[in-house]
Amino acid sequence: MPLIAAPRRTGTISRVRALSTGTVRIRPEHVASSGTPELWWLMTSRRWTEPLPINVYVIEHRDGLVLFDAGQDRASVLDPDYFPKALRGIYGRLAHFDIAEEQTLPRLMERAGYSIGDVRKVVISHLHQDHIGALADLAHAELYVSAAEWRTLHAPFPELAGVLRNHIELPGLRWRHVDLETSPDSLDPFASAHDLMGDGSLVLVPTPGHTPGSMSLLVRDGDATPLFLCGDLTYSCDLLHEGVVPGVGNAHQLRQTTKLVTGFEQKLGRLEILAAHDPTAAARLGATEFGRGIATG
User: Fold this and answer.
1) pLDDT at residue 45 above 90?
2) The predicted structure's pLDDT at residue 6
3) Omega into 28 within 30° of 0, i.e. cis?
4) Contact yes or no for 293/59 (Cβ under 8 A)
5) CATH ID of 13-292, from 3.30.70.20, 3.60.15.10, 1.25.40.10, 3.30.9.30
């Protein structure tokens, strides 16, 4: 594959913003594993977290708008048939969503000065339902998901793993299944990567653990502090640095991936790690060059 080098010229990415499609409350064991089996804490826990954001990241690239994830569908709180009937109890114990009418992704983008019709590419970190909510509004865009993640969609009973096939395989969607290629030494310790735009500014890397095919997006432009959009690898940047992994997914794989990400951060010397549900992510993004819209040289 071509060498994925950090872009030498600036101005490739003018701004990155976080938009939250409502909030979600989940179990504390979901955020930070206690070592208890997932099914046990899911069925016995009586506690909920404070409301957490459901972040979508909007990247203003010179070749068009790019989204990282697509948020939660408001229909999930309005339509009693959104979740499979046999699994509504389990989904109800897993998460409680609060999504106002003005918090749908098209409305949020409009209020932020964008049009969802101008989105060119969408990276889906993984296929859980709080990351694919606006797919029906994105039929004009190219949708990128890892090939490994797409295979989980066609495994037996994907709904048991939080993957709702009927909200993903919609007519007219333009899915692109990413097979990550061998990465250059500059991305070590990641063994594989994919250059999304062909200019080194947006690079996909595998971050499995929460799901088998989860992937993250490295955002970089010149001397600006790079961003690492990591989906649900963690629910808190602080917990990630402490080595505490979420209670949903493969714990061993989550720990291994967490070590890769923190090792990459140490190698670079500076990296802003932004998760989908971290309450501090939007403010930390806003303090970076990308968040302030001045990563233009």
Assistant:
1) yes
2) 55
3) no
4) no
5) 3.60.15.10
